[in-house]
């Protein structure tokens, strides 16, 4: 009898298992178990920290938030709701307190960059930004620090002046459409790819695409178009470098034209999302239709760096720039950097130096442009300082100690917070104590810079307002609190 019951039971089970609905129902069950079990097991002891329930279960929640372009503002809202500690993913806690900056990023903190940075690698070699190894980073810093010395940076002023002068002349050209329109000319038009219109005695244009700070070295300013030549095949161009290093022949490879600033944005959007996705899922995520353009952008951006390096090698007498300095870098054996490492570092300089400066300067221009009071005050200070100087572009020596200009720049860096997200770090062996909480080795931690820059307890009721005077008016403890919370360039060894 028992044998018969067993046979019926197995037959029923087989019938259920053969139904597609069974497998469909099983998928959410498996997903829930895969997410809930680690949450309950809690190997890093993070269950005490508050946060959105989805964030506690999966890093997919932050990937989605980043994909919506809401990383900094979402984290800021979460800290308003939950306080200093917020769980952003199963292994990540965000800590919104100025004291956490030094504890996490400081020289003696010992924390390393998180796996987040693996998404930023485009070459076999890592660069100074995406290497996670402390030893490799120290080696790179030793070999490349000469590029960032005050003397090297000052040597770039002549080159920067040429690009600034080109920018000013493009903007002057745009302004000349006002009298042109008043004498019967067209009231709308294009300068390169920059659309303008004359209205109310003024010319209106979007300074972001028309600034093209990123494009200056690629001739975009003068052509007024988002365009740059890049290596068509990364593999072939790196092979050409290798061959040239052996034979001394000129580096030649096939190139193509791309809208570089647009491609840069597409790539940046994908990279930030991938940073929150475990690496085993990267190739799957990149195949999703939403991320296809970002995936195609990566090798193009890498090709841009390779083409820039090749151009520089074949024209060593060109104007002074950071690529020159990079080519002068030598490793500990006195050898120049390999083609792969050279391209990876050049890629970093183009990305880290261009997008940040373009976004910061465009945001600050916007804040100044919309407030005539600030504009007039800044102009008065500059007019006085530059009174005796006959040049379109201000020499650094004439403007390096202007209190209101400094205040405007600091306020732009604070309010806009170009790098507003908290750069993620991994707690080292032995753990780390921050504000009385002990974090186990392997936990990811970060300090949300945008939140610190907008915290009313530090900046006052007008924290969200662009008010440069705060940098001049604040004194004593208040000023110290502001400076302790101000970290637009992060701090410590990175
Ligand atoms: C307004 C302009 C800029 C801002 C706000 C900015 C901000 C930052 C921040 C916050 C980091 C740390 C990122 C992290 O830990 O993940 C960083 C790293 C870096 N930045 Fe900038 N940056 C700016 C301009 C530049 C320029 C002009 C260059 C060079 C041409 C540059 C080169 C680098 C490099 C090489 C790193 C990596 C450092 C390392 O990991 O050792 N940055 N920047």
Automatic annotation (TrEMBL):
Highest taxon in the source lineage: Eukaryota
Parts of the chain that traverse the membrane: 21-41
Pfam family, one: p450
UniProt cofactor(s): heme
Alphabetized InterPro entries for the sequence: Cyt_P450, Cyt_P450_E_grp-I, Cyt_P450_sf, Cytochrome_P450_monoxygenase
Pathway membership: Secondary metabolite biosynthesis
UniProt GO MF annotations: heme binding; iron ion binding; monooxygenase activity; oxidoreductase activity, acting on paired donors, with incorporation or reduction of molecular oxygen
Keywords: Heme, Iron, Membrane, Metal-binding, Monooxygenase, Oxidoreductase, Transmembrane, Transmembrane helix
Family: Belongs to the cytochrome P450 family.
UniProt protein name: Cytochrome P450
């Amino acid at each position: 009898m028992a044998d018969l019951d067993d046979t019926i039971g197995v037959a029923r089970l087989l019938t259920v298992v053969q139904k597609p609905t069974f497998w469909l129902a099983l998928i959410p069950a498996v997903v829930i178990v895969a997410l809930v079990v680690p949450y309950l097991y809690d190997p890093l002891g993070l269950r005490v920290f508050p946060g959105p329930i989805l964030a506690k279960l999966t890093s997919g929640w932050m990937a989605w938030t980043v994909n919506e372009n809401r990383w900094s503002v979402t984290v800021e809202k979460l800290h308003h709701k939950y306080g200093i500690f917020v769980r952003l993913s199963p292994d990540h806690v965000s800590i919104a307190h100025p004291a956490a900056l030094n504890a996490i990023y400081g020289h003696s903190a010992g924390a390393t960059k998180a796996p987040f940075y693996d998404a930023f690698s485009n070459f076999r070699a890592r660069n100074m930004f995406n290497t996670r190894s402390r030893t490799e980073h120290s080696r790179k810093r030793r070999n490349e620090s000469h590029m960032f010395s005050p003397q090297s940076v000052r040597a770039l002023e002549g080159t920067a002046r040429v690009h600034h002068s080109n920018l000013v002349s493009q903007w002057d050209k745009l302004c000349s459409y006002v009298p042109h329109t008043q004498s019967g000319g067209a009231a709308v038009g294009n300068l390169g790819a920059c659309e303008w219109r004359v209205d109310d005695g003024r010319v209106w244009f979007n300074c972001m695409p028309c600034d093209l700070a990123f494009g200056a070295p690629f001739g975009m300013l003068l052509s007024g178009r988002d365009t740059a030549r890049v290596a068509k095949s990364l593999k072939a161009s790196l092979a050409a470098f290798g061959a040239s290093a052996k034979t001394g022949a000129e580096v030649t490879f096939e190139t193509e034209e791309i809208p570089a600033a647009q491609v840069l944005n597409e790539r940046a959007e994908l990279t930030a999302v991938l940073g929150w996705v475990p690496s085993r899922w990267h190739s799957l995520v990149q195949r999703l239709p939403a991320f296809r353009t970002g995936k195609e952008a990566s090798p193009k951006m890498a090709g841009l760096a390779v083409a820039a390096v090749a151009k520089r090698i074949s024209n060593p007498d060109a104007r002074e720039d950071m690529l020159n300095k990079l080519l002068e870098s030598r490793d500990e054996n006195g050898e120049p950097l390999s083609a792969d490492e050279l391209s990876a570092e050049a890629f970093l300089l183009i990305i880290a130096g261009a997008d940040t400066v373009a976004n910061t300067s465009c945001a600050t221009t916007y804040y100044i442009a919309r407030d005539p009071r600030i504009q007039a005050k800044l102009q008065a200070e500059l007019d006085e300082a530059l009174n005796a100087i006959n040049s379109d572009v201000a020499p650094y020596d004439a403007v390096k100690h202007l209190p209101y200009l400094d205040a405007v720049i600091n306020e732009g860096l604070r309010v806009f917070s170009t790098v507003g997200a908290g750069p993620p770090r991994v707690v080292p062996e032995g753990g780390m104590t921050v504000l009385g909480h002990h974090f186990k080795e392997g936990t990811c931690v970060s300090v949300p810079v945008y939140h610190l820059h907008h915290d009313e307890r530090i900046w006052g009721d007008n924290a969200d307002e662009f008010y440069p005077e705060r940098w001049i008016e604040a004194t004593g403890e208040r000023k110290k609190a502001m400076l302790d919370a101000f970290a637009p360039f992060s701090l410590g060894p990175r």
